[in-house]
Structures are given as structure tokens and as C-alpha cells.
Amino acid sequence: MSAPRSTSVQLLGDLREVVGPAHVLTGEDLLASYTTDWTGRFAGTAVAVLRPADTAEVAGVLEVAARHGAAVIPQGGNTGLVGGSVPRPGLAGGRPQLVLSTRRLSQLFELDPSSHLLSAGAGTTLAQAAEAAQTAGLHPGIDLAARESATLGGMVATNAGGLHVVRHGPMRARLAGVEAVLADGTVAARLSGLTKDSVGWDLGALLAGSEGTLAVVTRVTVRLEATPVHRVAALVAVDEVSSAVDLVTGPLRRLASLEAAELTLAPGMSLVCESAGLAAPPAAGSARAWLTLEAAADHDPTDELARALADRRVLEAAVAADAAGRARLWAYRERHTEAISRLGIPHKLDVSVRPGRLPALVARLPDAVAKTAPGARLVVFGHVAEGNLHVNVLGPPPEDDAVDDAVLRLVAELGGSISAEHGVGVAKAPWLRLARSGAELEVMRRVKAALDPGRLLNPGVLEPV
Ligand code: FAD
Ligand code: 2HG
Ligand code: ZN
């Protein structure tokens, strides 16, 4: 929703004083890429996009926004998939909406190899952080296909997961410190990087998963891991989804070197091969599921991986140890998101159940989808070790959420979560009560009211509808 012209003129004038005229973007052409989300399902209009250069400018932007009663939507790489990083019509209660882009907050503040820590501006991309860590033979212990655009601040705000959670945990576990600006401009920081520090509440843990509703993260300190000497990837065809789950929760789980265990199914495999022009995967035609595995260690983990896969339910496997070969195998898994988006605007349901219930979820999804969205195309893949499936449905119009309702209710019935790693955003706000009790939501409401009483930051996100 746009503000009355007089308000906008004063607001824009004050914002230009804080960040400089070149960093207050206005006009539809300039705003377009900041006001529509990655999927194309969520979009709105903003009075301006602000590109502050440092923490003081972020505080200044928030102070001006509060004075003018404008809502602020923090945005990093805009790769979030739940509509939390863009303005939305109707959610700011008629107030002007501003997008605060963190992309200029990309300074590398510290690389401390002895403590295995990297501290950088919130707008630093994951790829930039990984490249910096690599100069010391270290890596951030977290990886995802959006690595070239997703920012450290966005990854904290969503508690991002990704491909290496099985070994190194989600972003919350990688976090050794944060600096953030609260809605009233207060700068709060806990950047000591200490492994043991039990003085009260943990600011980073509070902000991990807060989706831009409590503060703007301006700096992130990440724990690093030593880069293993050897790395091997495998694309493994199995007869059934249940076999993939059994292997990952059994022999593979016992491998200390296991770094990734990803699941793909036949419909997604066909789509990716067609869309990206890839050769047929192992056992195409007979396999119902594939595991993309990666093991990494200072010894060569190929033999131990092979031993863990010595099982009659494994139909065929392709293995690669060199970087080009590994990338070739990973393409079957990593190119799902882009291949799906080529077909239209998907309904994305990022859900988790206990791994043992994955086969039941996979088996029941087609029926749940067919009943609410007849003729829709269903593509399912995910992070099998955490029971995290990415359920993508193509067909229903973006605003028709009957299929979202059916899938999320099925997941809740199986004791699962409506968001495993992407967050709630606006996409899943109507179903928050399926995942959190009334008492838990009341705690969230009180924390929000304490830190952002004017509901300045990301109104509508993470709020029960
Ligand atoms: P944005 O999209 O800009 O923002 C996401 C949310 O964080 C919004 O609510 C926003 O308001 C808030 N936010 C952003 N920056 C800040 C800040 N500095 N302070 C406060 N709030 C902020 N996600 C996974 O978890 N695992 C995956 O494997 C994965 N793979 C992906 C693959 C592809 C191809 C794509 C497109 C996305 C993928 N994602 C994945 C989703 C996405 O990359 C993550 O959610 C990522 O953490 C978003 O980072 P971002 O910088 O793009 O944040
Ligand atoms: C992934 O694991 C991402 O690749 C994206 O979380 C999931 O596209 C999706 O649904
Ligand atoms: Zn994922």
C-alpha cells in the first residue's frame, strides 16, 4: 500500500539523509526485484528500498521509519521461499512499507582460524563467507543451493538448514554471535565468540528463526569446521522410499564422515533430467527413490560408504570423488527448485516428520493433493536424515491455498512441523496453530510486543491469522 504523497516526500527526504540519495531506491523498475519473492507467489509495493552501509545507518533507518509510522521489511538475498522478505498488500495496516536491504553490509570483520570463527556483515552471502573461510582451510558447516545469493543475516533469520544439517546442524547451531538493531534503534551485540558462556538468555538463539520480526541482524559470527582432505559423493538408486530411510537412519547414520543425505523421487528426477538436459540417473525406470550422499573426512571415506551401502535394496550407484564429478551428481538434487519454477508458480510446503514416518507421508501425499487440487503436479524431495520433505505442488493458482491446508494438516496428523527450514513467513501464517500451542504463541506475542511494540518490523510474518 502506498502512503499519501506528502508523507512519502518527508519520509524519503529523511531516509536520504541517513543512507544518502543513491541508496534510497524508488520507481517501479528499481524496486521490482526487491518487491517480488523468489517464487513469484508473493509480491507487494514499497515506498522505497533502503540500502544502508553499516549498523549506524540501519539504526538511522529504523528511527526514521518509527517516526513516520512506516513498516520495515528486512531483506537479504530475497531467496526465502515463504514470502517473508517482500512487502505484502494489506499486512501493514495501511502504513507505508519500506524494504531494508542488507546487501551492502558485506564487510568481513574477522577470520579467527584458532577459534574457528568468522564474523561478517549480515549481507555477506554464504558463498562469500565460505570463500573467506577456505583461505584458512575451514568451512561454515552449512551449505544450500542458494549459496551465491542467500545472506548470513537471512540464514539466521530463517534458521536455514540445507545439505549438511545431518553433520553440522542448522544455522542456529552454527551461530557463535550476532549484532542486531532493535525496532527502536538500540544496537544489541553478543560477539565474544565464546563456546562456553551461560550468562542468561542467548541473543543469537532468540533471533535465529525470528524472520525479521524482532530485529534487523547486522553482523553474524559463524562457527567454522576444518575442511576435510577427502570428499566423495554418490547417487544411489533404491527400490523404495522406505529403503532410503532405513539406510540413512541405519548404516549411513553410523558413518562419522556422512555429510549429506538427500532424497529424490522419480517424478522430480524426470523433471530435472528433462529441464536441465541431464543424462538418465542410475537405475532410471526401476528405482522409486535416489539418495544423494556425500562423505568427507581426512581419510578416504569411499570404502566405508560402499560398505554401508552393501544392501540388496540398493539397485545401482554412481560415485565421484573429483569436484567436477561430484557437481555432476549433485545437479540431480540441486536443480529441483529451478526446474519446478520453470513450470509455473509452485505451492511450496517445507515440512518435517520423524524420519520413520517419511514413507507414510510420501505415500499419503498424492491422495491429499488430488482431493484438493485435481490434476495438480506433485514434486517431492528433501533432506531425508531430518525427515524434511519439500512438497511442491504445481497447478492451483497462487491464492488458492486449499492444497496447502490439506498437506499441512496431513503433516500435523503425523506429528510433524509445518516448517522445517524455510520459516513461516506469510505463506504459512494461517497454519501456525497446527504447529504451536496457544501458550507458545502467547510467549511469541509477548516477546514481539516487548521488542517491537509498534509492530514496525515485518508485520504479518510469523503472526497467527
Ligand atoms: P531473504 O529471503 O532476504 O529473507 C528471508 C527472511 O529473513 C525474511 O523474513 C526477511 O525479513 C528475514 N531477513 C533477511 N535478512 C535479515 C536480517 N539481516 N535481519 C533480520 N531479518 C532478516 N533454505 C534452507 O533452509 N535450506 C536449503 O537447502 C535451501 N535451499 C534453497 C535453494 C534455492 C534454489 C532457493 C531459492 C532457496 C533455498 N532455501 C533454502 C531458502 C533460502 O535460501 C533461505 O531461507 C535463506 O536463509 C534466505 O536467505 P536470504 O538472505 O535470501 O533471506
Ligand atoms: C532445497 O532443499 C531447498 O533445495 C528448496 O530448501 C526447496 O524448492 C524447494 O522446495
Ligand atoms: Zn531444503
Account of the 3D structure:
- The radius of gyration is 22 Å and the shape is globular.
- The protein has helices at residues 5-19, 28-35, 55-68, 126-134, 152-158, 165-168, 171-174, 203-207, 241-249, 266-276, 302-308, 323-334, 336-343, 358-372, 402-413, 432-435, 438-451; strands at residues 24-25, 48-50, 71-75, 97-101, 108-112, 117-121, 138-139, 175-182, 187-190, 215-223, 225-226, 230-238, 258-265, 289-297, 314-320, 347-352, 377-383, 388-394.
- It has 17 helices and 18 strands.
- A seven-stranded antiparallel beta sheet has the order 15-12-14-13-17-18-16, sandwiched between helices.
- It folds into four domains: 5-104, Uridine Diphospho-n-acetylenolpyruvylglucosamine Reductase, domain 2 (2-Layer Sandwich), CATH 3.30.43.10; 108-226, Uridine Diphospho-n-acetylenolpyruvylglucosamine Reductase, domain 3 (2-Layer Sandwich), CATH 3.30.465; 230-326, Alpha-Beta Plaits; 343-422, Alpha-Beta Plaits.
- With 465 residues, it is an alpha+beta fold.
- The mean pLDDT is 96.
- Helix 10 (266-276) crosses helix 13 (336-343) and helix 14 (358-372) packs antiparallel against helix 15 (402-413).
- Residues 38, 73-81, 84-85, 102, 122, 144-146, 149-151, 153-155, 157-158, 160-162, 211-212, 216-217, 337, 421-422, 425, 458, 461 line the site of flavin-adenine dinucleotide.
